[in-house]
Structure prediction request, 128 residues.
Amino acid sequence: MLKLTSNPNNVAAVEKFVGKICREYQIQREIYGNILISLTEAVNNAIIHGNKNDESKTVRIQTHKAPDLIAFRVSDEGRGFDSNNLPDPTCPDNIAKCGGRGVFLMKQLSDRVDFYDNGRTVEMHFKI
Prediction:
């Protein structure tokens, strides 16, 4: 488990964490990239949108390994959000907007994404 205070600079710790996990489980380079981008987006969202950069709040990253997959669970201490009511970043009205692509990227790069606890926790699965 990795526990971070809600400072955007702490997102840099995700790369070291993912590298360690991927070496430990000998995960392919392509999947490593998908995990790194997805997890970075999830942690960034948890810090900025969930915990509102409040350094008294933390973001927790947990990992679960099964024979054919690895899962990452990112939890924040924010108010949550409706994961079913997000604007589509591929819609022409949203293409030029800055932001709004994190959940879209997570869904594109992982094999499964689930939200729990009113959106305060996201779990991403990657087949390995």
The two ends are 20 Å apart (CA to CA).
